[in-house]
Design a protein that fits this description.
Blueprint (H helix, E strand, L loop, with lengths): L20 E3 L3 H10 L4 H4 L14 E5 L5 H17 L4 E4 L8 H12 L6 E4 L3 H8 L4 E2 L2 H7 L7 H6 L1 E2 L2 E2 L2 E7 L2 E5 H6 L10 H13 L12 H26 L7 H13 L12 H9 L5 E4 L2 H8 L6 E5 L6 E9 L1 E2 L5 H11 L2 H11 L2 E2 L11 H12 L1 E4 L9 H17 L2 H15 L1
Parallel strand pairs: 1-3, 2-3, 2-4, 12-15
Antiparallel strand pairs: 4-12, 5-13, 6-7, 8-12, 8-14, 9-10, 9-11
Helix pairs in contact: 1-4, 3-13, 3-14, 3-15, 10-11, 10-17, 11-18, 17-18
This protein binds beta-D-galactopyranose (GAL).
The site of beta-D-galactopyranose has 13 residues, from strand 12.
Length: 446
């Protein structure tokens, strides 16, 4: 089995091949791009038409938001796989920090609208991929690659469907994350006589939270500097109250946001804040995980990239995991993949990158560090750690539902509206106003 303790190695300082990693090359673009960011940036963007200056094929620039411990370690595994077949190509790591791509997507949009694409960029499938990149004309199809590489047989049909737009495929999936996981500090729960199972309920969670509050321990580690972390907590709570069938219906308009179970979910969301770390507005998701590792707070609901974070920091022995309360039997999927840009500066390298990232070998190497499971179904699972086995079994057996916080369930405009509303909610906990904002956002979509 792979030695996961190596996951803490800083990929930017590891020199194991002839390639060079150039970090932070996108940083100059970030400040100006943030300033220019407005609502629905993708929809307003002009399709790229001109061909960039020829730059030869000496480099490969890869754009992502994978900068935290497990994220960077996973990305480095993809780089190693590419470098093994392309040893003379300099890999430029253009990652822009910020959970769920909040900053990266802004910086990328500026580059795309200026016709300065990287050679490939990270995207989620579904609405994010289609609205931000496919419809505005920034991506080429990868349908031919799927045919050539035999990928139509190696990716699950449900995943292929999520990368397909008007009959063409536009993303090469590299890994599948589970979004509805509740991580916890094992010692804190043991010390307070709290037991949790995959079948626990929201009531069980709040009973545990009361016990912890009485003992003076924040029950929930919140990193609300990452707005996505609160949106994700909300969607997991919504799933708990609606169940997978009705959860799916709110995204296709069959169930209104005025449903009383939506109200309950928002009330639940407010309740998490009753017993939370005081510094939550200053912490990101991974900073909040540090509180869990150190026993300074008990729980955080997070995607399973948090397991990659724990491995990268060698804190995995401190934590346990169960389904987000009330969501047993459901798997909130958060899928990552890479695009083929139109006008890639190094199109041969871009193609080779996608071939490598889509391979069974690269996905087997990437997943344990990232905390994901491979997107392909034919990857040897004998080296999977206990966490991956758990997530993999759930992916096969559970109802798979999409995530709003990670781009698949709602459009970018809807997500932007929810992000804005939740920033206000974190401060005022006004249930009715937040629910109205959801309704207004849905009406704008219609
Ligand atoms: C998600 C992404 C994951 C992980 C997470 C936190 O959107 O799919 O790979 O990186 O954000 O940044």
């Amino acid at each position: 089995m792979r030695d996961l303790r190596n996951a803490g190695i800083n990929p930017l300082t590891t020199t194991t091949s002839r390639r060079t990693l150039v970090a932070g090359s996108a940083s100059a673009a970030i400040a100006s791009s943030l300033a220019r960011y407005g609502e629905a940036v993708a929809q307003d963007a002009t399709p790229a038409v001109a061909t960039p200056l020829a730059q030869g094929e000496a480099q490969l620039e890869i754009f992502s938001w994978w900068t935290t411990a497990g994220e960077a370690a996973g990305l480095d595994e993809l780089f190693k796989a590419f470098a093994a077949a392309n040893p003379d190509v300099e890999i430029v790591n253009a990652a822009v920090a910020g959970g769920a791509g909040t900053n990266a997507q802004v910086a990328l949009q500026t580059r795309l609208s200026a016709n300065q694409p990287p050679d490939s960029w990270q995207s989620h499938p579904g609405k994010e991929l289609f609205a931000r990149y496919v419809e505005p004309g920034y991506t080429d199809t990868v349908t031919a690659l799927f045919d050539e590489q035999g990928w139509n047989d190696t990716f699950p049909q449900g995943v292929i469907d999520q990368v397909t737009f008007d009959g063409e495929k536009y993303l090469v999936p590299v890994g599948v994350h589970r979004g509805n996981v509740m991580f916890y500090n094992k010692q804190v729960l043991a010390d307070n006589g709290i037991e949790v199972t995959d079948d626990w309920s929201m009531d069980d969670y709040f009973a545990a939270a009361d016990t912890l509050a009485a003992a003076g321990i924040p029950s929930y580690a919140m990193g609300s500097k990452d707005t996505f972390a609160v949106v994700q907590l909300f969607e997991n709570t919504l799933l708990a109250n609606l169940g997978p069938d009705d959860y799916a219906k709110v995204w296709n308009g069959e169930l209104g946001w005025d449903d009383e179970r939506v109200t309950t979910s928002i009330e639940n969301l407010a309740r998490y804040f009753d017993s939370v770390n005081e510094d939550h507005p200053a912490l990101t998701w991974d900073g909040a995980m540090d509180l869990v590792y150190d026993g300074k707070a008990a729980f955080q609901s997070m995607g399973d990239w948090a397991y990659g974070d724990a491995l990268g920091k060698q804190k995995q022995d401190a934590i346990g995991w169960v389904n987000h309360p009330g969501t047993g039997g459901s798997f909130v999927s958060v899928i990552d993949g890479f695009t083929m840009p139109k006008n890639a500066p190094h199109p041969v390298n871009a193609r080779n990158w996608l071939i490598s990232a889509g391979s069974a070998e690269a996905q087997a190497a990437f997943a344990p560090f990232k905390g994901a499971i491979p997107a392909r179904t034919d990857v040897d699972s004998s080296g999977f750690n206990e966490y991956m086995q758990w997530s993999s079994e759930a992916f096969s057996a559970d109802s798979v539902v999409p995530s709003l916080a990670h781009g698949a369930a709602g459009s970018p405009q809807f997500l932007t509206s929810v992000n804005e509303a939740i920033v206000t909610f974190i401060v005022d906990k006004d249930v009715a106003t937040f629910q109205e904002a959801l309704q207004f956002a849905a009406e704008d979509e219609a």
